[in-house]
Design goal:
single chain; globular; 12 strands
């Protein structure tokens, strides 16, 4: 459904050029969930927004359902935008406070010219689909809790009948008690509507639960991609190994027996990233040639891709 090749996005600042997304390549198949994980500031959100052209790419290629949408004009892009939607991280900032819940959900229908006589019925249907009721369509965002606001954001994303949704940390701003409800609802919607997701998150346990495959991102680049069960049981890249070792385990005996592998040093600046392998300044396996190697994802068996040539 979605194929991204060498996707690059820079931001020019007073301090220099930020390499936010640098040569990202990945694919998403129909009906699957691709988890995208990594440290804060590694470029996950930028990658997601660039894939659906909320940010304009500086380089690379975006193929959606066989169509190259990388440099399409906005007028040409409209039919594809209908099929590619996004759920934003902050339910408090992503909803217009001057619009009612019903108007927020109705707006994509107006933009994508869905029949007007179906708008009201569809708004009520979507509210019910995400666990709200039609009586709440006249309320404003400040009258809802954080979890309810995110449900409105999900209903808005569904309004245009998309095929793929970028979920940008959709549960990180919510209470833990609400997070599982939202994730379960997303899974139910995926099964009933045949949706594909790119699920961006910090919570590695949740990503394991919801994802078909997982891509690990470090400082603007993808370092490893594998099926969820394969990645969590057999991580290859040193960064992935360290990242997964930090997942909390509720059993104190198992937790005491586990070995946490801390990373050396601090994450480098995205304005002046290390040459060659971005991870080499923090890697125990680093060799002199890591400073100039041009790394690509290498097949390691079982559809397991890793950028480190020394594993």
């Amino acid at each position: 459904m979605l194929e991204v090749t060498n996707l690059t996005k820079y931001f020019d600042t007073d301090s220099g050029r930020v390499h936010s997304c640098d040569g990202v390549s990945l694919t998403v198949d129909n009906g699957e969930t691709l988890g995208l994980v990594g440290e804060s500031g590694c470029g996950k959100t930028t990658a997601g927004r660039t894939m659906i052209r909320l940010y304009e790419p500086d380089d690379g290629k975006i193929i959606f359902n066989g169509h190259d949408i990388t440099h399409m004009k906005q007028s040409e892009l409209l039919p594809f935008r209908k099929k590619m939607q996004m759920i934003f991280q902050d339910p408090y900032a992503s909803l217009n406070p001057r619009m009612t819940a019903g108007d927020i959900i109705r707006e994509p229908m107006i933009i994508h010219r869905l029949p007007k006589d179906e708008h009201d019925d569809r708004v009520n249907h979507l509210l019910k689909l995400v666990g709200l009721n039609s009586e709440q369509s006249g309320r404003y965002p400040h009258e809802f809790s954080g979890g309810q606001r995110q449900r409105i954001g999900i209903a808005r994303a569904l309004a245009a009948e998309p095929e793929i949704i970028i979920c940008d940390e959709p549960i990180s701003a919510l209470d833990v008690s609400i997070q599982a409800q939202i994730v379960n609802m997303l899974e139910d919607l995926q099964k009933s509507l045949g949706l594909a997701y790119i699920f961006i998150a910090h919570d590695l346990s949740m990503v394991r639960h919801i994802s078909t495959r997982v891509a690990v991102m470090y400082l603007g680049t993808i370092v490893e991609i594998a099926e969820s069960s394969e990645l969590y049981t057999n991580p290859l890249h040193p960064y992935t190994v360290s990242l997964l070792s930090s997942i909390p385990v509720p059993d104190p005996e198992i937790s005491a027996a586990r070995k946490i592998i801390p990373l050396q040093g601090e994450i480098p600046s995205a304005i002046n990233p290390p040459s060659g392998c971005r991870f080499r300044t923090r890697c125990k396996l680093a060799k002199p040639e890591c400073s100039f190697l041009k790394l690509e994802l290498i097949e390691k068996g079982n559809n397991h891709l890793c950028s480190c040539p020394f594993i």
